[in-house]
Amino acid sequence: MYMEVKNIRNFVVIAHIDHGKSTLADRMLEITNTIEKRKMREQVLDQMELEREKGITIKMQPVRMVYHANRGSNAKIEEEYILNLIDTPGHIDFSYEVSRALQAVEGAILLVDATQGVEAQTITNVLMAKSLGLKVIPVLNKIDLASAMIDESKKELEDLLKCKGDEVLQVSAKTGEGVEELLSRVIEVVPPPKYEYADKSRALVFDFSYSLHRGVIVYVRVTDGEIKKGDELAFAGSGEKFIVHEVGTFNPQEETREKLSPGEIGYIVTNIKKPAMGTVGDSIISPKNPLPALPGYMQPKPVVFASVYPTSADNFNNLKHALEILHLSDSSLNFEEESSGALGRGYRCGFLGMLHLEIITERLKREFYLEFVVAQPTITYTVKLLNGEQVNVYSPAVFPEEHLIKTIFEPWIEVNIITPPDRLGGILQIIYDHEARVSLTEQFGEARNILKAEMPLRELMRGLFEEIKSASAGYASLNYKIIGMREAPKGWITRLDILVADELVPALSRITSRKRIEREAEELVEKLKNLVPRALFVIKIQARGMGRIIASRTISALKKDVTGYLYGGDRTRKMKLWAKQKRGKSRMKESGKVNIPNDVFVKMMQ
Ligand code: GDP
Ligand code: MG
User: Fold this and answer.
1) Predicted confidence (pLDDT) at residue 373 exceeds the cutoff of 90
2) How far are the Cα atoms of 112, 244, 401 from residue 485, in angstroms, in the given order?
3) Ligand number nearest to the C-alpha of 48
4) How far apart are CA 207 and CA 118, in angstroms?
5) Could you tell me the distance, in angstroms and rounded to a whole number, from the CA of residue 60 to the centre of ligand 2?
6) Which residues contact 515 (CB under 8 A, 6 or more apart)?
7) What is the DSSP letter of 589?
8) 71 Cβ partners below 8 Å, 6+ apart?
9) pLDDT tens digit string along 411-467?
């Protein structure tokens, strides 16, 4: 027997990046007086420093709002509703955040920027929401803009959702127009949460945070029973028990409450001080009266790998701790201890994409004050050797020598691109250049095309997003999924090494294709030339691949004015000093060591 919680609605806002999710959340927070006017700022839910700087949402953010419905025209009774909203990121690298948020709610507002129309990520989001059986509310945003293509976008939503045009609401998250109606629609069509047991507690863990004082804080959606301070609970997966120190809801700051009831979204302070104990998707249960665990989450597979090495060995444990804490709230971050002779001891980390990698390394620096070297990121390759062995390569530095290789297998992806028809030609050219095999182009909605193709993941990582963006003036969008490993043409994939002052720099090795190796070699040495600080001697920078030096640069020596303090006078004294300096330089050159500062490695990746 299921019971309904009549006055609660749990929902997410999903959309392609920049379609206005966080701004829409702002208006809802205002309408419901959740945040005082004077404390309001744009995209208030983007609280992380990095989010504000980059203007994007990285973490999902839950917030609880109290809304008095039917205040408008023919209201008879005022009813109070609790609306739990989860704002989500829009970038494809953070789809996993979205998928977790979706499992904690019953409905989704699907927001589409009317000046852009439906985009690739919109489709991915809709498929995820539908597969979980959520009620989807289609909404067009930015209708205040003159460039809004309301009819075209509406038609695209009709096609995508198989709904009627008049079901599509129109709002401006900027001016607030239509947002009250949207809240009424949420109350009307999103199903209230249901629960089975009133006396047995169970909750789905959809996120975590960690604080030094309070330990692990669990973000939950309560599915059954109540949770309150003093309760003894446990993680179903790990079996780890704890006493509830505090419960509360998101305001969006944490706000203490007496208890959390079925259907509610909130947090539990556990006081557990080891970050590596729980995972998202786990269930919180009562060990005395345990309900079975809820179905968990699919663990996403990393797409890009990069090795991270602390600059000093003392920092190895700090790096480990930092990765564990980040992993708590982002279980898509993978890491495994690794030691490669040249680089020392570090972690091989797996990410869901390049933006994910960038964000994590930034957070390691800013939130944990760590100094480290990040090796050139790579995707995985499976290499069959002539001696019959097979190796999975996650790091360019250990990619086997060419004469040992029999065959190489690499990941392939399926991409979907949505574009205005007049950009299609240009886009096809770009993706053919990236070794794509186009499987389909067809009309999408009234005014656009959708294009499906398969290509090596390696090529997506070679600036495909940016190229398509600029070829379409931002009007085309792309998403992808991995479809499997395929054999690469013989000799096509190869390793490119960088030598600085005749020494191999393992962190700068990369795996590339024959077609790109020369251009990449040139780009790399040129970039390095501008990043490596000059020394008192000439520094040679070389790129080596396919058994030869492909590109090289030299950084001229720094002329240190060793005679500056000598005023006028005897020139022979100056000559003597110059001669001494020259000897010193050649000695230094012999010892030959160039110290490459850490930030060079980070900059080389960008
Ligand atoms: P998100 O990535 O989906 O969270 O998008 P944001 O809420 O961060 O908004 C992206 C940009 O669109 C910001 O510059 C907003 O100010 C702008 N924006 C959002 N909604 C509207 C709207 O209704 N009208 C206009 N003119 N701009 C909007
Ligand atoms: Mg946002």
Assistant:
1) no
2) 34, 46, 21
3) 2
4) 29
5) 9
6) 492
7) H
8) 78
9) 999 999 999 999 999 999 999 999 999 998 888 888 889 999 999 999 998 889 889
Rounded (5°) CA angle 255-259-265: 65
Cis peptide before 290 (omega within 30 of 0): no
57 lines ligand 1 (CB under 6 A): yes
The rounded Å distance from CA 442 to ligand 1 centre is 30
Partners of residue 443 on adjacent β-strands: 449
Length of the chain: 606
Does 43 contact ligand 1 (Cβ within 6 A)?
A: yes
Greatest alpha-carbon pair distance for the chain in Å reads 103
Whole-number percent of the chain with pLDDT over 70: 93
Torsion on CA atoms 107, 113, 118, 122, rounded to nearest 10: -40
Report the percent of the chain where pLDDT is more than 90: 64
Q: Average pLDDT over the chain, rounded to whole?
A: 90
* Ligand 1 atom nearest 17 alpha carbon: 2
Q: Which atom of ligand 1 is nearest to the CA of 15?
A: 3
Secondary-structure percent of the chain, ordered helix, strand, coil, rounded to 5: 30, 35, 35
Ligand 1 centre to CA of 17 (Å) is 9
Residue 42 CA, closest ligand 1 atom number: 16
Q: For 279-330, how does the pLDDT look when each residue is reduced to its tens digit (9 = 90+)?
A: 888 999 999 989 999 887 878 889 999 999 888 878 899 999 999 999 988 8
CB distance 116 to ligand 1 below 6 Å: no
Q: What would the two tokens of residue 365 be?
A: 């620096």
| C-alpha of residue 513 to centroid of ligand 1, in Å | 39
> Whose atoms come closest to the Cα of 122: which ligand?
1
- Describe the strand order of the beta sheet including 202-211 as a list of residue ranges: 241-243, 232-235, 283-285, 202-211, 215-224, 265-269, 246-250, 254-257
Report CA torsion sign: 359, 363, 369, 374. negative
Pocket test for ligand 1, best of 14, 23, 51, 477 (most atoms within 8 A of CB): 23
Alpha-carbon span 479 to 119, nearest angstrom: 9
Pairing of strands 79-87, 8-14: parallel
Q: How far is CA 553 from CA 24, 167, 253, 527, 598, in A?
A: 51, 62, 53, 10, 20
